[in-house]
Amino acid sequence: MKLNIAYPSTGAQKLIEIEDEKKLRVFFDKRMAQEVEADSLGDEWKGYVLRITGGNDKQGFPMKQGVITNARVRLLLSKGHSCYRQRRKGERKRKSVRGCIVDSNMSVLALIIVKKGEQEIEGLTDKVVPRRLGPKRATKIRRLFNLGKEDDVRKYVIRRTLPAKEGKKPRTKTPKIQRLVTPVTLQRKRRRIALKNKRRVKRREEAALYHQTLTKYAKEKQAEKVARRHSSASHSQEGFVLKWSMRTFTGLGRASSGPARALAAFAPTTMG
Q1: In terms of domains, do 157 and 198 share one?
Q2: How many domains does the chain have?
Q3: Are 70 and 99 in contact (CB under 8 A)?
Q4: Is there a domain that residue 261 lies in?
Q5: What is the CATH number of the domain that holds 173?
Q6: Rounded CA gap, 110 and 66, in Å?
Q7: pTM
Q8: Residue 123 within a domain
Q9: DSSP string, 195-227
Q10: Same domain assignment for residues 86 and 24
Q11: Integer distance in angstroms from the first to the last C-alpha of the chain?
């Protein structure tokens, strides 16, 4: 089995291969994130404590944290899961992964040094690997160089020297500083806030105008409805009065003609 051991303090890592299974028994039946004493690996490892961070089996399938088994399983994985990188948005896929328990079928085991022992490990703890890239974020650059808010961060950016080409001068590359506060960014922020306030005022004015128009329209409709009701009521009243007057006139005519006819019948006739 191969052991890929890293030392975060120096940034160095080393791959060692161990054939003797007796030395590796201390890792068997241990889970990921557990700490193991490395005294069984040799005299130079006395006092070292290693933490298991992962590994691959002999077929190349990676270990997955949280899968409590030492065998292989097929899991439906999506974005955010370890051992999977989605190719399309919202894609899910069933992948074969290995459980988080170490056994003899492992090909490579990834470890980090948690506690350093008495002796130095050649190629691991006795050398320092410089970081290839410096910090990009403005706050992290300030923290690295102990700068204040008034100091210019751009002067302290770590430059990276590129390999020189034939017949040309060596070039340096500077990363773009993220979250850097400048007068331009402040001006953009003020403009963004002003536009937001302008949109809010415009939205309120349009809402007030719409409410006013809607109220006016409702009042006009109500006035038309009331006028229509009054008009129909006046027409019906005029018709009722006309009908009643005609009925009264007809009754009076009949009453006056009846007695006159009776008196004419009983009146004495005069001889000429």
Answers
A1: no
A2: 3
A3: yes
A4: no
A5: 1.20.5.2650
A6: 17
A7: 0.59
A8: no
A9: HHHHHHHHHHHHHHHHHHHHHHHHHHHHHHHHH
A10: yes
A11: 166
What's at 263, amino acid-wise?
L
Token code pair at residue 232:
């129909």
Amino acid at 256: S
pLDDT tens per residue, the chain (272 residues)? 999 999 998 889 999 999 888 889 999 999 999 999 998 888 889 999 999 999 999 999 999 999 999 999 999 999 999 999 999 999 999 999 999 999 989 999 999 999 998 888 888 888 888 888 889 999 999 999 999 988 899 889 988 888 888 888 888 889 999 999 889 999 999 999 999 999 999 999 999 999 999 999 999 999 998 888 888 777 777 666 666 666 665 655 554 455 545 444 544 544 43
Query: Which of helix, strand or coil describes residue 6?
Result: strand
Residue with tokens 């988080």: 100
Please provide the size of the chain in residues.
272
Q: Tokens for 246?
A: 């005609």
